[in-house]
Amino acid sequence: MTDAIKIDVWSDIACPWCYIGKRNLENGLAAASTDEDAPAVEVTFHSFELSPDTPVDFEGDELDFLAKHKGMPREQVQQMLERVTGVAADAGLEYRFDLLKHTNTVKAHELLHFAKEQGRQHELAERLMAAYFTEGRHLGREDELVALAADVGLDADAARDALQSGRYLDAVRADQAQASAYGINGVPFFVIDGKYGVSGAQPADAFAQIVRQVWAEHREPAEADEAVA
Questions:
Q1: What does the angle CA 56 – CA 190 – CA 46 come to, to the nearest 5 degrees?
Q2: Helix (H, G, I), strand (E, B) or coil at 110
Q3: 3-class secondary structure, 44
Q4: Which residues face 8 on adjacent strands?
Q5: How far apart (Å, rounded) are the C-alpha atoms in residues 169 and 158?
């Protein structure tokens, strides 16, 4: 058996390009999965906070936040959000920045680590991003996070305990430390087999090409071993 390709994804729930990158990765992997020699891939999500100083209850809308955070005129921010909305639509996502509730995401990241232990990380990452970007849910509030955890089959009481105990905060900080060690200062960022770095929300075709290339590299040692045998 050839070892699976390991893809480690650093992202933030509140990063619009991260959700687009996630969907493009999934679509690229789906395309490669139809190959006769389909790559085996394991994807793991890691924590990255774009704006860790953001309050849980931010006063204002996304335009207000970005205009202040990036020091840009509101008109320019509006154009930027319209562009991102269009790119998201191309990936099959319906962004609603008019509904979006900007918030601190550290608790959402803690919950993702809890979900990882329960084998539900992928499902929760999708649920959180959809809730944030398309449904206008408030992901800084414990009750909302617990409800979203329950949506993907996690035990609500256990999810609440995980959030209230803070026991997954160290795992969030470890992810952030690893990102710093890799020199990652923007997300999404994809680390493939611990040696290839891919920055940004690449198109689905690009992800398909990358995994096919890396899979061929995986197959070379296995084929060599078979030849010796």
A1: 40
A2: helix
A3: strand
A4: 44, 191
A5: 16
Determine the Cα–Cα distance for residues 229 and 214; give it in Å rounded to an integer: 24
The neighbour count for residue 6, using CB atoms within 10 Å, is 14
* Contact assessment for residue 124 and residue 112, using Cβ atoms and an 8 Å cutoff: yes
Q: Are 22 and 129 in contact (CB under 8 A)?
A: yes
Which amino acid is present at 85?
A: T
Report residues of the chain scoring pLDDT below 50. Answer: 227-229
Q: Considering only CA atoms, which of 91, 90, 84, 89 is closest in space to residue 63? A: 84
Whole-model pTM: value is: 0.94
CA pair distance 115, 172, nearest whole angstrom: 13
Find tokens 């996304």 and name the residue.
62
Q: Is 94 exposed, middle or buried (0-12, 13-18, 19+ CB in 10 A)?
A: exposed
Residue 138 phi, psi (nearest 5): -95, 100
Write out the two tokens for 195.
Answer: 């040696």
Listed residue (143, 166, 174, 140) closest to 156, CA to CA:
143
What is the structure's pLDDT at 68? Answer: 85
Q: 106 with 52: CB under 8 angstroms? A: yes
pLDDT at residue 171, rounded to an integer: 98
CA 204 to the chain's CA centroid? 15
Alpha carbon distance 229, 227 (integer Å): 5
Exposed / middle / buried, residue 150 (Cβ in 10 Å: 0-12, 13-18, 19+): middle
